[in-house]
Amino acid sequence: MANIMIRLGCYLFILLLLNCKQYDNRKDSDEKPNILFILSDDHTSQAWGIYGGILQEYVQNDNLERLAGEGVVLNNAFCTNSICSPSRASMLTGQYSHKNQVYTLREPLPKGHPNIAKTLGEHGYQTALIGKWHLVEQPEGFQYFNVLPGQGRYWNPIMKSKANWQDGPDGTMGKVYDGFSTDVITDLTIAHLKQRDTSAPFFMMCNFKATHEPFEYPERFKTLYEGVDIPEPESLLDFGLGSGGRTFLGQKLENMAIRWEKAYLHPDEFWTSYPGLPFIKEGLDSIALRKKIYQKFVKDFMRCGAAINDNIGKLLDYLEESGIAENTIVIYTADQGYFLGEHGFFDKRLIYEESLRMPFVIRYPKELKGGTRIDDIILNIDFPALLADYAGIKKPQYMQGESFRENLKGNTPDDWRQQMYYQYWLHHPDRPAHFGIRNHRYKLAYFYGKGLDMHGASKEDTPPTWEFYDLEKDPMELKNAINDSLNAEIIKQMKGALKQLQEQYEVPDLDF
Protein backbone atom coordinates (compact mmCIF):
# COMPACT_ATOMS: atom_id res chain seq x y z
CA MET A 1 0.00 0.00 0.00
CA ALA A 2 2.84 2.35 0.88
CA ASN A 3 4.52 1.62 -2.46
CA ILE A 4 1.29 2.36 -4.31
CA MET A 5 0.92 5.68 -2.52
CA ILE A 6 4.53 6.58 -3.31
CA ARG A 7 4.01 5.74 -7.01
CA LEU A 8 0.76 7.74 -7.07
CA GLY A 9 2.51 10.67 -5.46
CA CYS A 10 5.27 10.52 -8.04
CA TYR A 11 2.74 10.44 -10.87
CA LEU A 12 0.91 13.44 -9.45
CA PHE A 13 4.17 15.31 -9.01
CA ILE A 14 5.15 14.63 -12.64
CA LEU A 15 1.71 15.75 -13.86
CA LEU A 16 2.06 18.91 -11.81
CA LEU A 17 5.47 19.63 -13.34
CA LEU A 18 4.08 19.06 -16.85
CA ASN A 19 1.17 21.38 -16.17
CA CYS A 20 3.56 24.01 -14.80
CA LYS A 21 5.73 23.62 -17.88
CA GLN A 22 2.72 24.06 -20.17
CA TYR A 23 1.72 27.14 -18.21
CA ASP A 24 5.26 28.50 -18.45
CA ASN A 25 5.26 27.92 -22.22
CA ARG A 26 2.00 29.80 -22.55
CA LYS A 27 3.42 32.59 -20.45
CA ASP A 28 6.61 32.72 -22.55
CA SER A 29 4.65 32.86 -25.81
CA ASP A 30 2.62 35.80 -24.52
CA GLU A 31 5.60 37.56 -22.96
CA LYS A 32 6.33 41.04 -24.23
CA PRO A 33 9.73 41.24 -25.91
CA ASN A 34 12.63 43.21 -24.57
CA ILE A 35 13.90 45.92 -26.94
CA LEU A 36 17.56 46.88 -27.31
CA PHE A 37 17.77 49.85 -29.68
CA ILE A 38 21.38 50.62 -30.63
CA LEU A 39 21.84 53.97 -32.35
CA SER A 40 25.05 55.42 -33.75
CA ASP A 41 25.71 58.86 -35.20
CA ASP A 42 26.45 59.23 -38.93
CA HIS A 43 27.50 55.55 -39.30
CA THR A 44 26.51 55.55 -42.94
CA SER A 45 25.58 52.44 -44.93
CA GLN A 46 28.74 52.70 -47.09
CA ALA A 47 30.76 51.91 -43.97
CA TRP A 48 28.71 48.92 -42.79
CA GLY A 49 30.04 46.44 -45.32
CA ILE A 50 26.67 44.67 -45.60
CA TYR A 51 25.35 47.06 -48.25
CA GLY A 52 28.14 46.49 -50.76
CA GLY A 53 30.17 49.39 -52.11
CA ILE A 54 33.86 50.19 -52.45
CA LEU A 55 34.56 49.91 -48.71
CA GLN A 56 32.99 46.50 -48.25
CA GLU A 57 36.28 44.63 -48.09
CA TYR A 58 37.90 47.16 -45.76
CA VAL A 59 35.47 47.85 -42.92
CA GLN A 60 35.66 45.84 -39.68
CA ASN A 61 32.16 44.36 -39.53
CA ASP A 62 32.10 40.78 -38.26
CA ASN A 63 29.48 41.61 -35.64
CA LEU A 64 27.42 43.64 -38.08
CA GLU A 65 27.49 40.64 -40.41
CA ARG A 66 26.52 38.41 -37.48
CA LEU A 67 23.53 40.63 -36.69
CA ALA A 68 22.50 40.83 -40.34
CA GLY A 69 22.82 37.06 -40.76
CA GLU A 70 20.53 36.51 -37.80
CA GLY A 71 18.12 39.31 -38.65
CA VAL A 72 16.46 41.41 -41.33
CA VAL A 73 18.21 44.21 -43.22
CA LEU A 74 16.30 47.16 -44.65
CA ASN A 75 17.61 48.13 -48.08
CA ASN A 76 15.47 51.25 -48.38
CA ALA A 77 15.22 52.90 -44.98
CA PHE A 78 15.32 56.69 -45.15
CA CYS A 79 15.38 59.64 -42.77
CA THR A 80 12.94 62.50 -43.19
CA ASN A 81 15.40 65.29 -42.26
CA SER A 82 19.05 64.26 -42.51
CA ILE A 83 20.62 65.87 -39.47
CA CYS A 84 21.19 64.54 -35.96
CA SER A 85 18.68 66.19 -33.63
CA PRO A 86 15.67 66.14 -35.99
CA SER A 87 16.23 62.51 -36.97
CA ARG A 88 16.46 61.47 -33.32
CA ALA A 89 13.28 63.38 -32.56
CA SER A 90 11.50 61.61 -35.42
CA MET A 91 12.65 58.20 -34.20
CA LEU A 92 11.24 58.98 -30.76
CA THR A 93 7.96 60.60 -31.78
CA GLY A 94 7.10 59.03 -35.13
CA GLN A 95 6.60 62.54 -36.48
CA TYR A 96 8.07 64.84 -39.11
CA SER A 97 10.05 67.84 -37.90
CA HIS A 98 7.17 70.25 -38.45
CA LYS A 99 5.10 68.17 -36.01
CA ASN A 100 7.62 67.59 -33.22
CA GLN A 101 9.17 71.06 -33.61
CA VAL A 102 12.77 69.87 -33.87
CA TYR A 103 13.79 71.36 -37.23
CA THR A 104 17.51 71.98 -36.87
CA LEU A 105 20.21 71.59 -34.19
CA ARG A 106 20.18 72.42 -30.47
CA GLU A 107 16.41 72.35 -30.36
CA PRO A 108 14.60 70.38 -27.64
CA LEU A 109 11.41 68.44 -27.97
CA PRO A 110 8.59 70.54 -26.48
CA LYS A 111 8.01 69.77 -22.82
CA GLY A 112 5.33 67.12 -22.37
CA HIS A 113 5.55 66.00 -26.01
CA PRO A 114 4.62 62.32 -26.51
CA ASN A 115 7.29 59.80 -27.45
CA ILE A 116 7.73 56.04 -27.67
CA ALA A 117 9.61 55.80 -24.35
CA LYS A 118 6.65 57.36 -22.55
CA THR A 119 4.23 55.06 -24.36
CA LEU A 120 6.20 51.91 -23.56
CA GLY A 121 6.67 53.00 -19.95
CA GLU A 122 2.92 53.44 -19.60
CA HIS A 123 2.52 49.81 -20.69
CA GLY A 124 4.86 48.19 -18.21
CA TYR A 125 8.26 48.61 -19.85
CA GLN A 126 11.39 49.64 -18.01
CA THR A 127 12.82 52.46 -20.12
CA ALA A 128 16.44 53.58 -20.15
CA LEU A 129 18.75 55.70 -22.30
CA ILE A 130 22.55 55.66 -22.14
CA GLY A 131 24.85 57.64 -24.43
CA LYS A 132 24.17 60.40 -26.91
CA TRP A 133 20.89 62.31 -26.46
CA HIS A 134 21.46 65.53 -28.47
CA LEU A 135 18.05 67.05 -27.74
CA VAL A 136 19.29 69.68 -25.26
CA GLU A 137 16.84 69.38 -22.38
CA GLN A 138 16.31 66.57 -19.90
CA PRO A 139 15.00 63.38 -21.53
CA GLU A 140 11.34 62.61 -20.86
CA GLY A 141 9.86 59.13 -20.74
CA PHE A 142 13.05 57.38 -19.67
CA GLN A 143 12.92 56.10 -16.12
CA TYR A 144 16.73 56.04 -16.17
CA PHE A 145 19.14 58.01 -18.31
CA ASN A 146 22.84 58.75 -18.35
CA VAL A 147 23.70 60.87 -21.37
CA LEU A 148 26.42 62.93 -22.99
CA PRO A 149 26.07 66.71 -22.79
CA GLY A 150 25.54 67.91 -26.36
CA GLN A 151 28.01 66.17 -28.65
CA GLY A 152 29.98 64.90 -25.70
CA ARG A 153 33.58 63.84 -26.04
CA TYR A 154 35.22 60.67 -27.25
CA TRP A 155 37.73 60.29 -24.43
CA ASN A 156 36.81 60.13 -20.75
CA PRO A 157 33.23 61.23 -21.46
CA ILE A 158 31.15 63.25 -19.03
CA MET A 159 27.69 61.75 -18.52
CA LYS A 160 24.64 63.52 -17.09
CA SER A 161 21.90 61.79 -15.11
CA LYS A 162 18.82 62.97 -13.23
CA ALA A 163 20.97 63.54 -10.16
CA ASN A 164 23.25 66.10 -11.81
CA TRP A 165 21.24 67.40 -14.74
CA GLN A 166 21.84 70.83 -16.28
CA ASP A 167 20.13 72.00 -19.47
CA GLY A 168 22.32 72.88 -22.41
CA PRO A 169 24.87 71.16 -24.64
CA ASP A 170 28.06 72.34 -22.98
CA GLY A 171 27.47 71.69 -19.29
CA THR A 172 30.40 70.31 -17.33
CA MET A 173 28.19 68.97 -14.57
CA GLY A 174 28.18 65.21 -14.53
CA LYS A 175 30.37 62.23 -13.89
CA VAL A 176 33.54 61.47 -15.81
CA TYR A 177 34.00 57.89 -17.01
CA ASP A 178 37.49 56.78 -17.97
CA GLY A 179 37.96 55.31 -21.40
CA PHE A 180 36.77 55.61 -25.00
CA SER A 181 33.13 56.67 -25.26
CA THR A 182 31.89 53.75 -27.38
CA ASP A 183 33.38 51.26 -24.91
CA VAL A 184 32.10 53.25 -21.92
CA ILE A 185 28.54 53.52 -23.24
CA THR A 186 28.41 49.79 -23.94
CA ASP A 187 29.74 48.86 -20.51
CA LEU A 188 27.24 51.18 -18.81
CA THR A 189 24.42 49.68 -20.87
CA ILE A 190 25.31 46.13 -19.90
CA ALA A 191 25.76 47.11 -16.24
CA HIS A 192 22.30 48.68 -16.21
CA LEU A 193 20.70 45.65 -17.82
CA LYS A 194 22.32 43.37 -15.26
CA GLN A 195 20.64 45.18 -12.37
CA ARG A 196 17.23 45.61 -14.02
CA ASP A 197 13.96 44.24 -12.67
CA THR A 198 13.70 40.93 -14.55
CA SER A 199 9.96 40.70 -13.95
CA ALA A 200 9.27 43.41 -16.56
CA PRO A 201 10.39 43.86 -20.18
CA PHE A 202 12.91 46.58 -20.99
CA PHE A 203 13.31 49.25 -23.65
CA MET A 204 16.98 50.18 -23.66
CA MET A 205 18.49 52.80 -25.98
CA CYS A 206 22.26 52.48 -26.31
CA ASN A 207 23.36 55.57 -28.24
CA PHE A 208 26.94 55.91 -29.46
CA LYS A 209 28.67 59.21 -30.22
CA ALA A 210 30.61 57.42 -32.95
CA THR A 211 30.99 57.89 -35.88
CA HIS A 212 30.44 61.64 -35.58
CA GLU A 213 33.22 64.07 -36.45
CA PRO A 214 36.08 64.21 -35.33
CA PHE A 215 36.07 60.41 -35.85
CA GLU A 216 38.30 59.49 -32.91
CA TYR A 217 39.17 55.84 -32.36
CA PRO A 218 40.63 53.73 -29.55
CA GLU A 219 44.32 52.88 -29.45
CA ARG A 220 43.64 49.31 -30.58
CA PHE A 221 42.75 50.59 -34.07
CA LYS A 222 45.52 53.14 -34.46
CA THR A 223 47.45 51.11 -37.04
CA LEU A 224 44.40 49.75 -38.86
CA TYR A 225 44.73 50.65 -42.59
CA GLU A 226 48.33 51.76 -42.15
CA GLY A 227 49.97 51.59 -45.58
CA VAL A 228 46.64 50.71 -47.27
CA ASP A 229 45.16 52.72 -50.16
CA ILE A 230 41.40 52.85 -49.81
CA PRO A 231 39.40 52.83 -53.09
CA GLU A 232 37.92 56.18 -54.11
CA PRO A 233 34.30 56.94 -54.99
CA GLU A 234 33.59 57.63 -58.65
CA SER A 235 32.72 61.28 -57.99
CA LEU A 236 35.57 62.09 -55.56
CA LEU A 237 37.07 64.61 -58.00
CA ASP A 238 33.79 66.45 -58.49
CA PHE A 239 34.96 70.05 -57.98
CA GLY A 240 32.75 73.10 -57.68
CA LEU A 241 29.25 72.42 -58.98
CA GLY A 242 30.59 69.49 -60.95
CA SER A 243 29.68 68.68 -64.53
CA GLY A 244 26.31 67.03 -63.96
CA GLY A 245 24.08 70.03 -63.42
CA ARG A 246 24.04 70.10 -59.61
CA THR A 247 22.70 73.46 -58.42
CA PHE A 248 24.66 74.01 -55.15
CA LEU A 249 28.24 73.70 -53.93
CA GLY A 250 27.87 71.33 -50.96
CA GLN A 251 30.31 70.62 -48.11
CA LYS A 252 33.60 69.91 -49.86
CA LEU A 253 36.41 67.78 -48.44
CA GLU A 254 38.78 70.76 -48.47
CA ASN A 255 36.72 72.22 -45.63
CA MET A 256 37.71 69.21 -43.54
CA ALA A 257 41.39 69.99 -44.12
CA ILE A 258 40.75 73.58 -43.04
CA ARG A 259 39.23 72.25 -39.80
CA TRP A 260 42.23 70.00 -39.19
CA GLU A 261 44.56 72.96 -39.60
CA LYS A 262 42.57 75.18 -37.23
CA ALA A 263 42.38 72.43 -34.63
CA TYR A 264 46.14 71.88 -34.81
CA LEU A 265 47.19 75.54 -34.80
CA HIS A 266 44.57 76.76 -32.30
CA PRO A 267 43.67 73.81 -30.06
CA ASP A 268 42.33 76.05 -27.29
CA GLU A 269 40.05 77.97 -29.66
CA PHE A 270 38.67 75.32 -32.00
CA TRP A 271 35.59 73.30 -31.04
CA THR A 272 37.28 69.90 -31.11
CA SER A 273 40.52 67.99 -31.73
CA TYR A 274 41.24 65.37 -34.40
CA PRO A 275 43.40 62.25 -34.42
CA GLY A 276 46.53 62.00 -36.52
CA LEU A 277 47.48 65.68 -36.80
CA PRO A 278 49.26 67.58 -38.21
CA PHE A 279 47.99 67.05 -41.75
CA ILE A 280 50.67 68.10 -44.24
CA LYS A 281 49.36 69.55 -47.50
CA GLU A 282 52.25 71.67 -48.77
CA GLY A 283 53.30 71.02 -52.36
CA LEU A 284 50.07 69.25 -53.35
CA ASP A 285 47.93 70.30 -56.30
CA SER A 286 44.13 70.30 -55.98
CA ILE A 287 43.72 66.68 -57.10
CA ALA A 288 46.52 65.30 -54.92
CA LEU A 289 45.22 67.30 -51.95
CA ARG A 290 41.70 65.99 -52.26
CA LYS A 291 42.93 62.42 -52.59
CA LYS A 292 45.08 62.78 -49.48
CA ILE A 293 42.24 64.34 -47.48
CA TYR A 294 39.98 61.48 -48.53
CA GLN A 295 42.44 58.80 -47.40
CA LYS A 296 42.86 60.26 -43.91
CA PHE A 297 39.17 61.06 -43.51
CA VAL A 298 37.80 57.69 -44.58
CA LYS A 299 40.40 55.72 -42.59
CA ASP A 300 39.59 57.68 -39.43
CA PHE A 301 35.89 57.08 -40.08
CA MET A 302 36.34 53.32 -40.49
CA ARG A 303 38.60 53.08 -37.41
CA CYS A 304 35.89 54.84 -35.42
CA GLY A 305 33.30 52.46 -36.87
CA ALA A 306 35.42 49.46 -35.94
CA ALA A 307 34.89 50.33 -32.27
CA ILE A 308 31.12 50.25 -32.85
CA ASN A 309 31.43 46.80 -34.40
CA ASP A 310 33.42 45.60 -31.38
CA ASN A 311 30.80 46.79 -28.97
CA ILE A 312 27.84 45.42 -30.88
CA GLY A 313 29.51 42.08 -30.37
CA LYS A 314 29.76 42.69 -26.61
CA LEU A 315 26.06 43.53 -26.45
CA LEU A 316 25.02 40.46 -28.45
CA ASP A 317 27.24 38.24 -26.30
CA TYR A 318 25.65 39.62 -23.14
CA LEU A 319 22.15 38.80 -24.42
CA GLU A 320 23.22 35.25 -25.26
CA GLU A 321 25.04 34.66 -21.97
CA SER A 322 22.13 35.99 -19.91
CA GLY A 323 19.62 33.77 -21.72
CA ILE A 324 17.42 36.58 -23.04
CA ALA A 325 18.49 36.75 -26.69
CA GLU A 326 15.48 34.78 -27.93
CA ASN A 327 12.97 37.26 -26.52
CA THR A 328 14.94 40.45 -27.18
CA ILE A 329 14.47 42.57 -30.27
CA VAL A 330 17.83 44.05 -31.28
CA ILE A 331 17.88 47.01 -33.66
CA TYR A 332 21.00 48.71 -34.93
CA THR A 333 20.72 51.85 -37.02
CA ALA A 334 22.26 55.29 -37.52
CA ASP A 335 20.49 58.62 -37.32
CA GLN A 336 21.14 59.27 -41.02
CA GLY A 337 23.66 58.64 -43.75
CA TYR A 338 26.89 60.51 -44.45
CA PHE A 339 29.01 61.40 -47.46
CA LEU A 340 32.36 59.63 -47.60
CA GLY A 341 33.86 61.52 -50.52
CA GLU A 342 30.95 61.09 -52.95
CA HIS A 343 30.57 64.31 -55.01
CA GLY A 344 33.71 65.43 -53.18
CA PHE A 345 31.55 65.85 -50.04
CA PHE A 346 31.62 65.04 -46.36
CA ASP A 347 28.75 65.61 -43.89
CA LYS A 348 25.04 64.85 -44.51
CA ARG A 349 21.87 67.05 -44.72
CA LEU A 350 21.00 66.44 -48.37
CA ILE A 351 18.35 64.38 -50.12
CA TYR A 352 21.10 62.59 -52.07
CA GLU A 353 21.28 58.85 -51.44
CA GLU A 354 24.41 58.71 -49.26
CA SER A 355 22.86 61.18 -46.82
CA LEU A 356 19.21 60.16 -47.10
CA ARG A 357 19.66 56.43 -46.59
CA MET A 358 19.59 55.00 -43.06
CA PRO A 359 21.25 51.62 -42.53
CA PHE A 360 19.01 49.40 -40.41
CA VAL A 361 19.09 45.81 -39.18
CA ILE A 362 16.70 44.10 -36.76
CA ARG A 363 16.96 40.69 -35.07
CA TYR A 364 14.06 38.99 -33.31
CA PRO A 365 14.54 35.20 -33.30
CA LYS A 366 10.98 34.47 -32.18
CA GLU A 367 9.49 36.03 -35.30
CA LEU A 368 11.97 37.06 -37.98
CA LYS A 369 13.89 34.90 -40.41
CA GLY A 370 17.62 35.60 -40.40
CA GLY A 371 19.48 36.64 -43.53
CA THR A 372 16.46 38.44 -45.00
CA ARG A 373 16.43 41.73 -46.87
CA ILE A 374 13.45 44.03 -47.42
CA ASP A 375 13.16 46.54 -50.29
CA ASP A 376 10.09 48.41 -49.02
CA ILE A 377 10.42 52.14 -48.36
CA ILE A 378 10.65 52.53 -44.58
CA LEU A 379 11.05 55.88 -42.79
CA ASN A 380 12.47 56.84 -39.42
CA ILE A 381 8.96 57.99 -38.41
CA ASP A 382 7.95 54.31 -38.70
CA PHE A 383 10.38 53.04 -36.05
CA PRO A 384 8.30 53.89 -32.94
CA ALA A 385 5.13 52.50 -34.49
CA LEU A 386 6.98 49.20 -35.00
CA LEU A 387 8.11 49.13 -31.38
CA ALA A 388 4.59 49.85 -30.15
CA ASP A 389 3.32 47.01 -32.31
CA TYR A 390 5.82 44.54 -30.87
CA ALA A 391 4.82 45.64 -27.37
CA GLY A 392 1.19 44.87 -28.14
CA ILE A 393 0.16 48.53 -28.17
CA LYS A 394 -2.24 49.96 -30.72
CA LYS A 395 -0.49 52.65 -32.74
CA PRO A 396 -0.78 55.92 -30.78
CA GLN A 397 -2.59 58.73 -32.57
CA TYR A 398 0.39 61.07 -32.29
CA MET A 399 2.50 58.94 -34.65
CA GLN A 400 2.55 59.76 -38.36
CA GLY A 401 4.52 56.64 -39.24
CA GLU A 402 3.30 53.06 -39.62
CA SER A 403 4.42 49.74 -38.19
CA PHE A 404 6.35 47.62 -40.68
CA ARG A 405 6.12 44.41 -38.67
CA GLU A 406 4.39 42.52 -41.47
CA ASN A 407 6.87 43.87 -44.02
CA LEU A 408 9.70 42.35 -41.97
CA LYS A 409 8.00 38.96 -42.23
CA GLY A 410 7.68 39.29 -46.00
CA ASN A 411 4.00 40.24 -45.94
CA THR A 412 4.07 43.79 -47.29
CA PRO A 413 0.58 45.35 -47.07
CA ASP A 414 -1.00 46.14 -50.44
CA ASP A 415 -1.34 49.80 -49.48
CA TRP A 416 2.25 50.26 -48.28
CA ARG A 417 3.87 53.54 -49.42
CA GLN A 418 5.58 53.64 -52.78
CA GLN A 419 7.17 57.05 -52.23
CA MET A 420 8.46 59.20 -49.39
CA TYR A 421 8.61 62.89 -48.43
CA TYR A 422 11.76 64.62 -47.22
CA GLN A 423 12.44 68.13 -45.92
CA TYR A 424 15.69 69.73 -44.72
CA TRP A 425 15.27 73.03 -42.87
CA LEU A 426 18.76 74.19 -41.78
CA HIS A 427 19.47 76.45 -44.75
CA HIS A 428 22.99 77.43 -45.80
CA PRO A 429 23.96 78.86 -49.21
CA ASP A 430 26.21 75.85 -49.91
CA ARG A 431 23.51 73.39 -48.75
CA PRO A 432 20.18 75.10 -49.38
CA ALA A 433 17.00 74.20 -47.54
CA HIS A 434 14.89 71.87 -49.66
CA PHE A 435 12.09 69.35 -49.83
CA GLY A 436 11.57 66.46 -52.17
CA ILE A 437 10.07 63.13 -53.05
CA ARG A 438 11.70 59.75 -53.71
CA ASN A 439 10.04 56.61 -55.05
CA HIS A 440 11.58 53.29 -56.04
CA ARG A 441 13.11 54.76 -59.20
CA TYR A 442 12.99 58.56 -59.31
CA LYS A 443 13.86 61.49 -57.08
CA LEU A 444 12.69 65.08 -57.36
CA ALA A 445 13.90 67.90 -55.11
CA TYR A 446 13.10 71.59 -54.82
CA PHE A 447 15.88 73.66 -53.26
CA TYR A 448 13.86 76.63 -52.07
CA GLY A 449 16.88 78.18 -50.38
CA LYS A 450 15.33 80.14 -47.53
CA GLY A 451 16.14 80.06 -43.81
CA LEU A 452 12.54 80.78 -42.75
CA ASP A 453 13.91 82.05 -39.40
CA MET A 454 14.84 78.52 -38.36
CA HIS A 455 17.31 78.21 -35.49
CA GLY A 456 20.85 78.40 -36.88
CA ALA A 457 19.76 78.88 -40.51
CA SER A 458 21.41 81.43 -42.79
CA LYS A 459 19.45 84.56 -43.68
CA GLU A 460 21.10 84.63 -47.10
CA ASP A 461 18.58 83.29 -49.62
CA THR A 462 19.63 81.33 -52.69
CA PRO A 463 17.81 81.13 -56.03
CA PRO A 464 15.22 78.32 -56.09
CA THR A 465 16.20 75.33 -58.23
CA TRP A 466 14.88 71.87 -59.10
CA GLU A 467 16.84 68.64 -59.41
CA PHE A 468 15.64 65.30 -60.79
CA TYR A 469 17.41 61.94 -60.86
CA ASP A 470 16.63 58.61 -62.46
CA LEU A 471 18.09 56.24 -59.86
CA GLU A 472 17.89 53.26 -62.18
CA LYS A 473 20.00 54.89 -64.90
CA ASP A 474 22.01 57.13 -62.59
CA PRO A 475 22.29 55.51 -59.13
CA MET A 476 25.18 57.78 -58.10
CA GLU A 477 23.12 60.91 -58.93
CA LEU A 478 25.73 62.38 -61.24
CA LYS A 479 23.34 63.97 -63.76
CA ASN A 480 20.56 66.37 -62.87
CA ALA A 481 17.99 65.47 -65.55
CA ILE A 482 15.42 68.16 -64.69
CA ASN A 483 15.62 69.67 -68.19
CA ASP A 484 15.52 66.38 -70.09
CA SER A 485 12.31 66.52 -72.14
CA LEU A 486 11.93 62.74 -71.89
CA ASN A 487 11.27 63.16 -68.16
CA ALA A 488 8.71 65.94 -68.44
CA GLU A 489 5.63 63.80 -67.79
CA ILE A 490 7.27 61.90 -64.92
CA ILE A 491 8.36 65.18 -63.31
CA LYS A 492 4.84 66.57 -63.66
CA GLN A 493 3.41 63.49 -61.95
CA MET A 494 5.98 63.66 -59.16
CA LYS A 495 5.24 67.32 -58.51
CA GLY A 496 1.60 66.36 -58.04
CA ALA A 497 2.56 63.49 -55.74
CA LEU A 498 4.87 65.82 -53.81
CA LYS A 499 1.98 68.16 -53.10
CA GLN A 500 -0.20 65.24 -52.01
CA LEU A 501 2.45 64.09 -49.54
CA GLN A 502 2.72 67.58 -48.10
CA GLU A 503 -1.04 67.58 -47.57
CA GLN A 504 -0.99 64.05 -46.12
CA TYR A 505 1.66 64.94 -43.54
CA GLU A 506 0.21 68.40 -42.89
CA VAL A 507 3.32 70.29 -43.93
CA PRO A 508 2.73 74.00 -43.24
CA ASP A 509 2.29 76.39 -46.16
CA LEU A 510 5.76 77.90 -46.62
CA ASP A 511 4.42 80.86 -48.65
CA PHE A 512 6.82 80.90 -51.60
Describe the structure.
The chain is α/β, with parallel strands linked by helices and 512 residues long. The chain has a single domain (31-504), classed as Alkaline Phosphatase, subunit A (3-Layer(aba) Sandwich). Helix content is 30%, strand content 16%. The protein has twelve helices and 18 strands. The chain has helices spanning 2-30, 62-69, 84-93, 97-100, 116-122, 181-194, 253-265, 286-321, 353-356, 383-390, 405-408, 488-504, and strands spanning 34-40, 72-74, 77-78, 126-132, 144-148, 158-161, 175-176, 202-207, 328-334, 339-340, 346-347, 360-363, 372-374, 378-379, 419-424, 434-439, 442-447, 465-470. The strands form four sheets. A ten-stranded mixed β-sheet has the order 7-6-5-4-8-1-9-12-2-13, with helices on both faces. α2 (62-69) crosses α8.
Features:
single chain; four-stranded antiparallel sheet; ten-stranded mixed sheet; 512 residues; alpha/beta; Alkaline Phosphatase, subunit A; 18 strands; globular
Helix content: 25-40%
Low-confidence parts: 8-29
Global structural class: alpha/beta
Order of helices and strands: HEHEEHHHEEEEHEHHEEEHEEEHHEEEEH
- In whole angstroms, the N-to-C terminal distance is 96 Å
How would the global form be characterised? globular
Q: Could you give the order of strands across the largest sheet?
A: 7-6-5-4-8-1-9-12-2-13
CATH class: Alpha Beta
Q: Tally the helices.
A: 12
Could you name the CATH topology?
Alkaline Phosphatase, subunit A
Rg, rounded, reads 24 Å
For this structure, what is the CATH homologous superfamily?
Alkaline Phosphatase, subunit A
Give the mean pLDDT: 94
Number of individual domains: 1
Strand content: 15-25%
State the major sheet.
10 strands, mixed
Second CATH tier, the architecture: 3-Layer(aba) Sandwich
Find the count of extended strands (DSSP E, 2+ residues). Answer: 18
